[in-house]
Amino acid sequence: MRILAICLTLLVLATPALACSPVYDPRTLVEKAAGRPELFVGKVVEVGADFIVMQVLSSRGTPTIGENLRKTHGGYGTCGKLTFTPGDVWLYDTDMPLSLSQKLTPEDLGADHGSNIDALIARLQAKANTPVE
Is the pTM of this model over 0.90? Predict the structure, then answer.
């Protein structure tokens, strides 16, 4: 019995702990975004302990451009945790781990400042497929 307990202990200690185990999704960003009708570009205007307020800069219709949206923002561990700062611009899906949400740079937003969300997603897809030197 003691040998069995030692073997089980060694087995547990030798097994790596997985803090985050994302499920591989082979679809492109464009394909993933097509299934998310409420995806929008928003500017963070307020950050609270458990919420953020974002002003919608562009969307596919819902939510409405110019609308301020209050979204709950939880602590979901270390896997995909998002950190918001007033003034940041985001492509926003949800704040859940493995969502499409990401902070955008001026380069990401492009000449149209992200007003065409489908063109923005295409730019992000192209950027993701560009090798880093």
Answer: no
